[in-house]
Specification:
mainly alpha; single chain; 0% strand
Amino acid sequence: MAKAAGQALSEQLTPARLDRDEGYRMLDLLQDEATQQATLPGLEQIAPGYADWIITALFGGTYLRDGLSLRDRQLINLAALTAVGGVDPQLAGHVRTSLRVGMTRQEVIEIFVHLAPYLGVPKALAGLRVAAATLAEAEEAGR
């Protein structure tokens, strides 16, 4: 459906859903306290307000969109972070989140195996090393 010419841009675009309170609820659902504490307070000290913006825009916006399950989003996150490389803390956090949304250890491992022909063996192995260490920590912690 075409929007009428002469309308203000804000009237032409579909409003985004940004819900700060829901963002914090989603963050608590997806990330354990240790993962949150490893990143957010330090980020607040460096760039005040930035952590809140991330939580509001990402967890209270992007994650609330229709069309993908939380499990699907985690599959994408693991693949994207592995492709980017050099983001081991974030990748480890998303491995933990994958377990929280019901993925099995085997499914998480298989993601990295599947990525090898698409990203290259070195990047897939780097992701797999992070995943293996994170899964071992989770097993030791009884998660």
